[in-house]
Specification:
Blueprint (H helix, E strand, L loop, with lengths): L18 E2 L5 E2 L1 H12 L7 E7 L9 H6 L4 E8 L3 E2 L3 H10 L3 E7 L5 H18 L9 E6 L13 H15 L4 E5 H8 L6 H7 L3 E5 L16 E5 L23 E4 L3 H11 E2 L18
Parallel strand pairs: 3-4, 4-6, 6-7, 7-8, 8-9, 9-10
Antiparallel strand pairs: 1-2, 3-11, 4-5, 7-12, 10-11
Length: 295
């Protein structure tokens, strides 16, 4: 790219071949237009497509080493689901993924039963699995997520917003961390923007980070959040976006659930570390209620 220092008496060999810019260089008009366009592109264009989520429904044995070599940074896996079940693949895959050098996260698929009991069961499963992992290879912390979506699959009905808030407060009480909230974009918008949701509940929800699913377009801002942090653009291989820009598989998982983080790879690393819970640390506050048994 031809560049020259800016001069007050600058002249060009060919008219309009170069233009001056505020960066004290001379640039071709086409390059200047390209630079201006970059300033207007949305943040997610520069995002990092390096998060995969899994559950026991993914029957294949994931090749986490291959995932890492293909650019995956972290895995978020189902840990618990109704009614107080634990994902049978969670422990095994946590150990394999962290041995491969991947960050680890856990989510709870919610229903409309007692949210405090759900939160306690979730943390019990996550902390017990973490304790069983090799200290030399286990993740320094676990990213926690509430899976808040319309529940037509498991018993117990769909979690209400006030129950989600109670779950969130319980997680924060016991860990000092606010979990992420996962939801389909439509369900999130209709649930959290409802006039029945109190201002206090919205303020608590806004302390969580947001993970939205939309398989056909980039999600929009969903109140009470100003933006999403993680975008699931592909679920079980379902995606209406161009395959060249939005891959639908990873390693040996053909029908993958892939996610875009709103930021660079280094920003994602910092985000994961900042929001993760270390089960080995003393709880932020001793819980007032505990699940009597691990069920």
């Amino acid at each position: 790219m031809p560049m020259h220092r800016k001069s007050c008496s600058c002249k060009f060999g060919k008219a309009a071949q170069y233009v001056c810019c505020d960066l004290a260089i001379v640039m071709r008009p086409s390059i200047l237009r390209g630079a201006a366009l970059l300033l207007w592109l949305p943040v997610w264009v520069f995002a990092d497509n390096s998060v995969v989520n899994l559950s026991h429904y993914d029957m294949v044995r994931p090749d986490f080493t291959a995932m890492k070599s293909e650019g995956i940074l972290g895995v978020i896996h189902e840990a618990t689901y109704p009614a107080f079940e634990r994902d049978s693949k969670y422990l095994e895959r946590e150990q394999a993924a962290t041995r491969a050098g991947l960050f680890w996260g856990a989510y709870h698929y919610a229903n409309a039963s007692d949210p405090i009991r759900q939160a306690d069961h979730f943390l019990s499963v996550v902390s017990n699995a973490w304790a069983q992992a090799n200290p030399a290879t286990r993740s320094p912390g676990v990213l926690l997520v509430l899976d808040f979506e319309k529940n037509g699959h498991y018993p117990g009905g769909t979690m209400r917003v006030d129950q989600a808030v109670a779950f969130i407060e319980r997680i924060h009480e016991r860990t000092g961390k606010y979990p992420g909230i996962y939801s389909g974009e439509y369900h999130a918008r209709t649930s959290f923007s409802s006039p029945r949701v109190s201002t206090t509940d919205k303020s608590i929800l806004a302390k969580c980070w947001l993970w939205l699913a939309n398989y056909s377009s980039q999600p929009r801002a969903t109140a009470p959040w100003d933006f999403w942090n993680l975008w699931q653009y592909c679920g079980d291989g379902r995606c209406k976006l161009p395959r060249s820009a939005y891959p639908k598989s990873i390693a040996n998982v053909i029908k993958a659930e892939r996610n875009i983080f709103r930021g660079s790879r280094s920003a994602l690393e910092s985000f994961w570390q900042a929001h993760s819970w270390n089960p080995g640390e003393k709880p932020h506050r001793e819980p007032e209620r505990t699940l009597a048994a691990e069920l």
